Amino acid sequence: MQYYSLNGHSPMVDFKEATIKGQAPDKGLYFPREIAILPKEFVKNIEEYSNEEIAYRLLQPYIGEDIEPGQLRKIVNETINFPIPLKEIEPSTFILELFHGPTLAFKDVGARFMSRCLSWFASGHDRKIIVLVATSGDTGGAVASSFYEVPNVEVVILYPSGKVSPIQEKQLTTPGKNIHALEIAGNFDDCQALVKKAFADNDLTRKLFLTSANSINVARWLPQQVYYALAWKQWPYKNEPPVVSVPSGNFGNICAGLLAHLSGIPVKRFIAACNANDVIPQYFQTGNRISKPAVPTASNAMDVADPSNFIRILELFERNLDNVKAKVCATTSSDAETAATIHEVFQQYNYTLDPHTAVAWNGLNKNRSHGEKGIVIGTAHPIKFPDFVEYNTGSKLAYPPSVQSLLSLDASSTQMKVDYPDLKEFLLAF
Ligand SMILES: N[C@@H](CCOP(=O)(O)O)C(=O)O
């Protein structure tokens, strides 16, 4: 598989080079030259396949010969070695629980896949690779856990000061060793802009071997397709494809869902469920993409004002917003609606939603007609946001032992202003 830059001014590369570079030299995101269509028989009989086999079949065409089949199977098997259940909450509404991995959020799948691909590509390489990543909450912990002690790799995580939950912060500030946390006095978009500036700095990229572990990197983005195939495998109404509601911040997850759908996984339509950071819902309504700063919300991992992956969604639909709108609707929920959703779902079904999943639940209910069956993508475990969740359910959450031990660890991070020269100096110290 070849990948081209969405800015159109860089040469095509294979999967290995796209993974190692993270972003194209012309600052564009890499995009696969073809959509790998799944055989109809496979989609029809998907229940007969193991999760590992499904993931392998979805991903292999995008990797091609860059990783030999035995090694790729090993990587895939290690990536999804935890449950990904589709739970029926009531007969029309299901939740795909993507939070049973080590850091209790959906990012574990992409981060584990990418870390294993990168360490495979880096073996025998004598230069140290610096993985740069910006996080609004969940990516940072997943990347820290996946890349911890990977030889020859240093990870630098930029996170917005005071804008991630205490558990999210512990996940990225406590591992130490090759994981370095930078607490930025700004918001997620500032962190993401600093990271993109580093990739565009020729002086820096000549001196350092830099790559990204955000979903701008194809090795982080593509594995997320697997969720949608596993949802279809477990979907009980095969003659009635689901409406799928996806909590959306940087839009990598929903974009991977759309790719899986265009490859052959049945979905009636998608809902991009956003919080008060509504740049994309407004764009859908008005056709104008305005720029405004992110506002902090209870679903902090979605506090993104300039979603990197939306350009990939447009590319999937021939850069035509009307084509996108034929398959996707975009909606917003306020924190008050998120709180009320957590309360109601707990009261009615005794199910505890995290704030991000609650945004998607509310988005589904606001945008489906009577009787339409749907899946809510459950992106994070409620324990990552105990104060907001316990306040709205009126019930105490049980802390899993892994979270309890995490909270007792010492955190370490470097504080930094939104200042590119400071970041460059920090990176050059490697
Ligand atoms: N929601 C993210 C923001 C970064 O998104 P990514 O998928 O591009 O890494 C987070 O939790 O950090």
TrEMBL record:
GO terms for biological process: threonine biosynthetic process. Pathway: Amino-acid biosynthesis; L-threonine biosynthesis; L-threonine from L-aspartate: step 5/5. Belongs to the threonine synthase family. PROSITE patterns: DEHYDRATASE_SER_THR. SUPFAM superfamilies: Tryptophan synthase beta subunit-like PLP-dependent enzymes (SSF53686). Its EC number is 4.2.3.1. Keywords: Amino-acid biosynthesis, Lyase, Pyridoxal phosphate, Threonine biosynthesis. It comes from Flavisolibacter ginsengisoli DSM 18119. It comes from the Bacteria. This is Threonine synthase.
